[in-house]
Amino acid sequence: MSDRPTPRAILRTAVTPRWLGFAVLAVIFMIGCFVLGRWQWDRTQDIIQAEQAGRSAPRVVEEVAKPGGTLTNELIGQPVIAAGSYEPAGQVMVLHRSFNDQPGVWVVTPLLLTDGSLIAVLRGWLPDASAPGAIPPAGSVVVTGVVQPDEGFYGEARPDPGTLVAISSVELGKLWGQKTRPGYITLQAQQPAFEPAPTPVPPTVVTDNVAFPIQNLFYAIQWLIFAAFAVVVYGRWLWRDAQDIGAEDDDLSTTVTPS
Amino acid sequence: MEKISAAALRYRIMAWVTGVVLGALTIWLIVGYGFMDYANTDVKPGLYRLLWTAHGWLYFIYLIVGVDLAFRMRYSILRTLGILIAGTVPFMSFVAEYFVHKDVMAKIAAQTVDPS
Predict the structure, then answer these.
(1) How far is B105 from chain A (nearest CA, A)?
(2) Distance from CA of B104 to the nearest CA of A (A)
(3) Contact residues on chain B for A214, CB-CB shorter than 8 A
């Protein structure tokens, strides 16, 4: 029973329908492992790159948020500078946003860039939609801020005209009827400053101060190990069945494994 | 036989360790995301992340000792896979361990009575 199986016995076992089935399963499993490992590896890269972007010098928004595209993960948290003028007609209030435990709204105003495209700017928080500071300054401004991804849910909800419950550049683009860049800018500073103004809020997604994505990196490694494991299990069990066949030698009946 | 009972003990330990860690993390996840706003990463404690990472490696050890025991017990490949996958489902490793333990005991008893 514990003799070395001959290569012929191993081969004969491997081509039985049962073992061909296991081989197919093992390959599917390994492909799955590679896909999942790749995904975790990409997440690791995204987090590291987003951290680098978050710490890098501000870039002009035109380079970062390209119209028609989507904001790539590694650019979330990138500091940007946007030069243009506010379009007061397109301004919307995002409802139910508290700041320092005070209820209020977020003020989102389209900024018309020099190339004629719009980018949503989250100018800040106000206690209510008619508080002083709601009206954006006229004329040219330079906004410094951080690029943020669209908020995921309820982007299309509009409780009242001029109000939203979430920031979605896609929905804002439909509302404004003009070419709108993906994501939005959380305003941190504006030149020239204008008073009264909404209180700037911290960015929702912060990437410049995150822990090293050790969990994702380890998962990426573990998926590869699992893939290797499939080979070990397949090989060892095939070997054992081949031993049983070898012991029976010319007996071609299927192996019954006692358990 | 001694080798099998040693392998069974190793498997038993790992089934309990991974099972307890995974069970605790599952409850923690439900409480954390359901009631404590863990979707906002700032409030997620470091220990929570660390335990998930630790569970990944514990499960890896579970795989090794599980395969070792299954091979010694001459389990079929499907039964082996069942035991291995049980380690990923919360609280299932206890169930798998219960049946494997019963099976190992029966095998050892049979071998002691009737040495062949």
Answers:
(1) 13
(2) 10
(3) 53
Chain B environment of A40 (Cβ under 8 Å):
none
Average predicted confidence (pLDDT) for chain B? 87
What would the two tokens of residue B77 be? 């490949």
**Which residue type is seen at A107?**
V
Q: What single DSSP character describes residue A89? A: G
Are B74 and A225 inside 8 Å of each other by CB?
no
Structure pTM? 0.62
Q: Does B73 touch chain A (CB under 8 A)?
A: yes
Is the CB of residue B75 less than 8 Å away from at least one CB of chain A?
A: yes
For CA atoms B81, B83, B88, B92, the dihedral sign is positive
- What is the DSSP track for A14-81? HTSHHHHHHHHHHHHHHHHHHHHHHHHHHHHHHHHHHHHHHHSPPEEHHHHS-TTS---GGGTT-EEE
Is B65 in contact with B10 (CB distance < 8 Å)? yes
Q: What is the DSSP string of chain B?
A: -HHHHHHHHHHHHHHHHHHHHHHHHHHHHHHHHHHS-TTSGGGS-HHHHHHHHHHHHHHHHHHHHHHHHHHHTT--HHHHHHHHHHTTSTTHHHHHHHHHHHHHHHHHHHHHHS--
Q: What is the pLDDT of residue A251?
A: 47
More confident site: A137 or A53: A137
Task: Give the H/E segment covering residue A180.
Answer: strand A180-191
Query: ipTM, 2 decimals?
Result: 0.72
Cβ separation B57–A218 shorter than 8 A? yes
CB count within 10 Å of CB A185 equals 28
How many Å lie between the alpha carbon of B15 and the closest alpha carbon of chain A? 18
Joined tokens for residue A181:
């860049």
Q: Report the greatest alpha carbon distance in chain B.
A: 62
Q: For residue A259, which residues of chain B lie inside 8 Å, CB to CB?
A: 73-76, 79, 103
Amino acid code (one letter) for B40: N
Predicted confidence (pLDDT) per residue in B24-57, tens digit: 999 999 998 888 877 766 677 888 888 888 898 9
Q: Write out chain A residues lying below 8 Å of B25, CB-based.
A: none
Residues in chain B: 116
Task: State whether B67 and A236 contact (CB < 8 Å).
Answer: yes
